Each structure stands twice: as C-alpha cells, then as structure tokens.
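Cross-check.
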Amino acid sequence: MEAGAGFSVLAILNNIASFIQGGGIIMMSLILFIWGVGLVICIERFLRISRYDVDGPSFMNEIQRYVLSNDIQGAIRVCSGSVAMLPKVLKNGLKRVGQGPEQMQNAIDATALEVIPKIELRLNYVQLIANISTLLGLLGTIFGLIASFSSISGDIDPAEKSRLLTEGISQAMNTTAMGLMSAISLMVIHAFITNKTEKIINEIDEFSVKLLDLVGAKKD
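Predicted model, tokenized:
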C-alpha cells in the first residue's frame, strides 16, 4: 500500500515536472514565482484580517449594556481587551463621551481613517499579480506560437519539424494553463479576503453611528 502511494506521488511529481518543462523553464518559473508571491500576500492578509475581525453585533450588545449602565470606563475596558479594529474605533469614541457628540464623532472618524488603510493594505497587489499571471501566460502562448510557426516555415527534416511543432504547441498551451490557474486562484482568494475587509469596514460605520446614537439618547 505504501509502495503504491509512493509511486502515485512520484508519478504526480513527474507529471508536474513534465508540465513545467513543456511550458518552458524560464516562463513557467516566472509564473510560479509570481503565483507564490501572490499566495504569500494572501496568507499574510488572511491571518492579519482574521485578527482585525470581531463579531460586531455581539460586541456592540456588550458595549450597549455598559453604556446603558453609565459604566463608560467598563465599556472602554472591554474595547481595550481586543486587537480588532471595531473595538479600537469605538474605544476612542467612548473616551470623548464627556466632551460632546461632535468630539466623539471627530475621534471616531480620525480612528477610522487610521485603521481602514491597514485593513485594505496590499490587497490591490493580489489583483495586480493575478492580472500579471494572465498576461505572462499569454506571453508564453505567443512565444510558443512563434516557435511553432518557425518550425513550419523552416527547411528542416520532417521529424525535427514535428518535434519543434509539438514543443511550440506545448509551450503555448502549458504557459496559458499555468497563468490562468495562478490568476483564477488568486482572484478567488482576493474576493474572499475583500469580503472580510468590507464586513469589518461596514461594521465600523454601522456600530460607530449606533454608539453615537446610544450615547446621545442616554444623555437625553
């Protein structure tokens, strides 16, 4: 059983190596490198954004209980116990409760302007790398087609001509496939991470307004 599994893995690795070699070592290595850079950025962003995220409705309900009990310091302590972005924004607003709604709004806006770029950091690079992967795949296709046409037009042995034509077509198809695999995977991951960032930003906007309304209603 283990020998069969080892043979299967070896066969897969050989197929991958043949696939890369068929597309041209230089172009395929370049696409793989670009793909790897994109995946590293995606992993870093996912881990970071997971730390920035929090269950907004549950967190706001907890803050609301403290505010309605006139325990603003307790609400601030709850915010201080989290590294997420929503608590950070609400915390700076709560610190200005005694200074009026305008000062609260200014503190919330200033903190939001500080944290939102951190949430969206480097996400545009993922989209750029996905586009570059597609273009590199198309460039490899062009090189492969050029090689194929050159083999057809050349006055060489038919067997050699057939080999060169096969290699050119292989390069064209393999680089296109590799570029598309890189681009599609990065675009899917980018969409997933972007959805998480938008959730965090929307919750900051929503619950900041609710906090201002809650504090204002409490004073009235």
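The radius of gyration is 28 Å. Residues 1-220 form one domain. Passed to J.P. for a second look.
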